[in-house]
Amino acid sequence: MGVNYFETILLSIGLAMDASAVSAVNGFTEPKMKLWKILFMAFLYGAFQGFMPMIGYAAGSLVVNLFSNIIPYVALILLTYLGGKMIYDGIKGEDEENEEISNGVTIKTLLLQAVATSIDALSVGLLFSENTVLEASVQSDIIAIITFIISVGSYFVGKYFGTFLNDKAQIFGGVILILIGLKIFYDYLKNIVFN
């Protein structure tokens, strides 16, 4: 079949949107994030986003279809947990909030975000089923690279807008994470109803 690079790039941009939104949240939650951490965050998001389709490709339709019904629930639970924690931290008091922001986004949080925003990409591996392993790997690499680039850019966009939010950044960020989780879940329910 071969790799259709144009379609793969469009697919990659679509898949990167959840990671992009979460990167922006991190930008206004931790505007003074070190460069190594920004790159590590984007690397995690890209790696998970690129790796999930390969798992789907290797597992085949039976396994992916089995898990596809629980993926939206996992994403919703993880993102609601992370968003709820951010909202709680944002409203529990100015002094505590400033201390929380100075501590920044933890590596554990970045990992949970990476899983939550990429888990729905498992089913994308089924799109690669007619390709060779090498072709599927190339497509997954493109997904990872584009997610990385978009995540870095989105962090700086979030950082810029975060200056206007000031002490409300964590609350706003938490609401956005919950909305992303609800969007993933809504898309899942919409597919059930209309398919």
TrEMBL record:
<feature type="transmembrane region" description="Helical">
    <location>
        <begin position="169"/>
        <end position="186"/>
    </location>
</feature>
<keyword id="KW-1133">Transmembrane helix</keyword>
<keyword id="KW-0813">Transport</keyword>
<keyword id="KW-1003">Cell membrane</keyword>
<dbReference type="GO" id="GO:0006811">
    <property type="term" value="P:monoatomic ion transport"/>
</dbReference>
<feature type="transmembrane region" description="Helical">
    <location>
        <begin position="70"/>
        <end position="88"/>
    </location>
</feature>
<keyword id="KW-0464">Manganese</keyword>
<feature type="transmembrane region" description="Helical">
    <location>
        <begin position="38"/>
        <end position="58"/>
    </location>
</feature>
<protein>
    <recommendedName>
        <fullName>Manganese efflux pump MntP</fullName>
    </recommendedName>
</protein>
<keyword id="KW-0406">Ion transport</keyword>
<dbReference type="InterPro" id="IPR003810">
    <property type="entry name" value="Mntp/YtaF"/>
</dbReference>
<feature type="transmembrane region" description="Helical">
    <location>
        <begin position="140"/>
        <end position="157"/>
    </location>
</feature>
<keyword id="KW-0812">Transmembrane</keyword>
<dbReference type="Pfam" id="PF02659">
    <property type="entry name" value="Mntp"/>
</dbReference>
<keyword id="KW-0472">Membrane</keyword>
<feature type="transmembrane region" description="Helical">
    <location>
        <begin position="6"/>
        <end position="26"/>
    </location>
</feature>
<dbReference type="InterPro" id="IPR022929">
    <property type="entry name" value="Put_MntP"/>
</dbReference>
